[in-house]
Design goal:
Oligomer: single chain
Helix content: 25-40%
Number of helices: 15
Low-confidence stretches: 1-30
Structural class: alpha+beta
Distance between the termini: 38 Å
Number of strands: 12
């Protein structure tokens, strides 16, 4: 039996929930709760508001977050409502078949990080996307049922809602169910995205997103009744997604088309709550010292951001001017070094260790800074890491 609305097999790269920062969702489409919101495009000032703001890649998802705020919800309620709404209105990246991270800072100053990234099924192997000669099979890791990892978005958002939210799960999922059942009007860009050729390769995605070849057009209403039904089942009993009848339907559908996920994989999935990384940034000119709270591994964002800030701390960027060539050169060079470390050291802390403390230390950043020529770009190919701070990078594991 096909699970109604899981919507596999979208490409694995599209099976990810956008990272939700629960205290202030930062992205593209903003909706304000009534307050003193102001914008000044001429001076490039950001939009601000007195009370609260929900920001996501789609205005309807942002509206869902604002709706639950008006119902008395807090920032976590808004984040979860927005996340489930994105499963409806932004299926190419916001669907319930993926996973994500949530970085939270509460009003009392406490910070936490919820890790709900997808996991490989138990039957996955290091060479599952290689042919008999050891060559990578094109698109095998990104398209099709075998590319699907154990979905984690539902577990993560339910965990966040239950532990840190103020409303009920049914309340925060309600806007998403309404959007899926009643549909929403497609823009020209959204309609064009549904022409994606990969969607036509699988009967379910071709039926749901392309009406079996009768493509949606701009201005048409896109309804997803199966997804609405699945979201309702999650709202009624989220455990069903991992331990009940719905879990069985998911596993059965994936396996019949060559995927690896089993009911045991779904039942074994666990959300992890981790300590965020905390650092500081003190501009060379000015008396301010900013506290920077970032995502820990398995996200690479926090380490890369803190390392970059540490390198830039030694430059008077204000004096150089906003986005001038001289300023951008230094920022690019700082990123170049931080991304070299990112590629060499960072991974999933459940399977590997990274020298996090050393990577985000001020002395290490100062050593990196000394290698930057303010007038000339560094060659990434010949870039040499400062000696004496880090162990040798791990070498890729090999299989017989």
């Amino acid at each position: 039996m096909e699970p109604s609305g899981l919507q596999s097999p979208m490409p694995l790269k599209s099976l990810s929930t956008p990272l939700l920062v629960a205290t202030l969702l930062m992205g593209v489409a903003a909706t304000e709760v009534p307050g003193q919101g102001q914008t000044d495009p001429a001076s490039l000032r950001p939009v601000s508001t007195r009370h609260a703001m929900v920001v996501s890649v789609h205005h309807l998802a942002s509206d869902a977050g604002v709706e639950v705020l008006r119902e008395g919800g807090n920032a976590i309620d808004a984040a979860v409502a927005t996340g489930f709404a994105l499963a409806v209105v932004y299926p190419d990246a916001g669907n319930i078949g993926g996973g994500g991270f949530m970085l939270i800072r509460l009003h009392d100053g406490k910070s936490t990080f919820i890790d709900y990234r997808e996991e490989a099924p138990h039957a996955a192997s290091a060479d599952m996307y290689l042919d008999a000669h050891g060559n990578v099979i094109a698109d095998a890791s990104t398209i099709g049922y075998r590319a699907v990892a154990v979905p984690a978005s539902v577990a993560g958002m339910v965990y966040a809602e239950r532990k840190y939210g103020r409303l009920t799960l049914k309340q925060v999922i309600a806007p998403a169910i309404r959007l899926a059942h009643g549909g929403y009007t497609l823009s020209a860009g959204e309609a064009a995205q549904l022409h994606e050729p990969h969607l036509a390769k699988f009967p379910d995605s071709r039926r749901i997103f392309q009406r079996d070849g009768r493509f949606y057009k701009a201005g048409e209403r896109f309804k997803q009744p199966q997804l609405a039904a699945t979201l309702q089942r999650i709202a009624d009993d989220p455990e069903d997604f991992y331990h009940g009848k719905l879990a069985g339907e998911i596993a059965e559908t994936i396996q019949k088309d060559g995927g690896l996920i089993t009911t045991a994989d779904l039942a074994a999935y666990q959300v992890k709550e981790r300590e965020p990384l905390v650092g500081t940034y003190k501009p060379l000119s000015g008396s301010e010292t900013y506290t920077v709270i970032g995502a820990p591994p398995p996200s690479s964002g926090g380490i890369t951001m803190l390392e970059t800030f540490n390198i830039l701390e030694g430059y008077d960027l204000r004096h150089l001017g906003d986005r001038t060539p001289a300023e951008m050169h230094l920022i690019i060079e700082a990123f170049r070094r931080a991304y070299m470390d990112r590629g060499d050291y960072l991974g999933d802390p459940d399977f590997s260790s990274a020298p996090v403390t050393a990577l985000i230390s001020k002395p290490y950043a100062a050593a990196w800074r000394a290698s930057i020529d303010a007038k000339k770009a560094t060659s990434s190919a010949t870039l040499q890491r400062p000696a004496g701070f880090l162990p040798a990078p791990p070498t890729p594991a090999t299989t017989a």
